[in-house]
Amino acid sequence: MKIKNLYKFAFIIPAVVGLSLMAYAPADGSQDAKKGLQDEKVIVVDKELHDFGTIGEDAGNVSTTFVVTNNTNAPIVLTNVRASCGCTTPTWTKEPIEPGKTGTVTATFSPKGRPGPFEKTVTISTTGTPEKLVVRIKGTVQ
Questions:
Q1: What is the model's pTM?
Q2: How many CA atoms lie within 13 A of 93 on its CB side?
């Protein structure tokens, strides 16, 4: 029994601890990989949230435009834009957006019959990176 216990402490436990530590050790070039991810060119939106503030229920629809910039090296397409509810209608650039150029997503909110605070999301699906962007609109209907 003593030999088995000695074997455990002398070989097995240090091996398990060593393997565990290796799992958390940075791999060669990890700093380069992190820098590469930070430098990766992606699609960006000029703002993530638009606050309409207080709007009148009978004042009619309100709209805001989000500018989508293609910072990748290839053309991208906004394949679909979906609002979180039927009270918000999105329209968007349908043509491919060339590298370095911009497209738009307009979100139009209908306040009629919706008194009180609101917060809605608009999900933008793309052919680039990231594949999905989420923007929000909010405000209060009086």
A1: 0.72
A2: 20
pLDDT surpassing 60 at residue 74: yes
Give the residue among 46, 58, 57, 42 at the shortest CA–CA distance from 106: 46
Strand pairing report for 49-55 and 132-141: parallel
- Angstrom distance (rounded) from CA 32 to CA 39: 10
Give tens-digit pLDDT for 77-126.
Answer: 999 999 999 999 999 999 999 999 999 999 999 999 999 999 999 999 99
Residues 6+ apart with CB under 8 A from 65: 104, 105, 106, 107
**Mean pLDDT of all residues in the chain?**
84
SS3 annotation, the chain: CHHHHHHHHHHHHHHHHHHHHHHHCCCCCHHHHHHHHHHCCCEEECCCEEEEEEECCCCCCEEEEEEEEECCCCCECEEEEEECCCCEEEEECCCCECCCCEEEEEEEECCCCCCEEEEEEEEEEECCCCCEEEEEEEEEEC
